[in-house]
């Protein structure tokens, strides 16, 4: 019986997020897809209201939801509304799709830590959204930057130091 857990987040183009998260300790698997939108079976060309997100499968014996969110807040800009880099629109919003009250409380705590740190010039605008169906993106989006090493990304680690003290 698997003890793995899943986390669902969005922080701009899913390619870069997946590429950075795949190397983190405790991350077992990554899938990119669409979440939080208006239609069933969204596609890249038809995903109104959906964020480009990522499903992370992780081993809670090696990492935690809090550690995942700490990395999330260091590898994208959570202070820009509906934008990461050149990508603009609600598809590129910063969002945490919490699955229960515990995850929501952890997310709220992390947002408070990030804001209190003063590392970002603005306040965090990451939305906290109840979990909704995660729709896997098309195969050509999966592992995109592995398949296309010179492909576009706006994600990079902005702060080496953790927000968690």
Automatic annotation (TrEMBL):
Has an important function as a repair enzyme for proteins that have been inactivated by oxidation. Catalyzes the reversible oxidation-reduction of methionine sulfoxide in proteins to methionine. Gene3D superfamilies: Peptide methionine sulphoxide reductase MsrA (3.30.1060.10). Keywords: Oxidoreductase. The keyword Lipid metabolism does not apply. The active site is at 13. It comes from the Bacteria. Its EC number is 1.8.4.11. This is Peptide methionine sulfoxide reductase MsrA. It catalyses: L-methionyl-[protein] + [thioredoxin]-disulfide + H2O = L-methionyl-(S)-S-oxide-[protein] + [thioredoxin]-dithiol; [thioredoxin]-disulfide + L-methionine + H2O = L-methionine (S)-S-oxide + [thioredoxin]-dithiol. Pfam families: PMSR (PF01625). The keyword Oxidoreductase applies. InterPro entries: Met_Sox_Rdtase_MsrA_dom, Met_Sox_Rdtase_MsrA_sf. Belongs to the MsrA Met sulfoxide reductase family. Residues 6-154 form the Peptide methionine sulphoxide reductase MsrA domain.
């Amino acid at each position: 019986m698997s003890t793995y857990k899943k986390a669902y987040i969005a922080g701009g183009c899913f390619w870069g997020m997946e590429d950075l998260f795949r190397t983190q300790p405790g991350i077992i698997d990554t899938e990119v897809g669409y979440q939080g939108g208006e239609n069933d079976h969204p596609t890249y060309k038809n995903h109104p209201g959906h964020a480009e997100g990522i499903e992370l499968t992780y081993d809670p014996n090696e990492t935690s939801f809090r550690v995942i969110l700490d990395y999330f807040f260091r590898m994208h800009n959570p202070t820009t509304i509906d934008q990461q880099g050149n990508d603009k629109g609600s598809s590129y919003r910063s969002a945490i799709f919490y699955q229960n009250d515990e995850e929501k409380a952890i997310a709220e705590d992390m947002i408070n830590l990030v804001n209190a740190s003063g590392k970002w010039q603005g306040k965090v605008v990451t939305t906290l959204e109840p979990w909704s169906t995660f729709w896997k993106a098309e195969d050509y989006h999966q592992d995109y930057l592995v398949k296309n090493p010179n492909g576009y990304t706006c994600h990079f680690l902005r702060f080496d130091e953790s927000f968690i003290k």
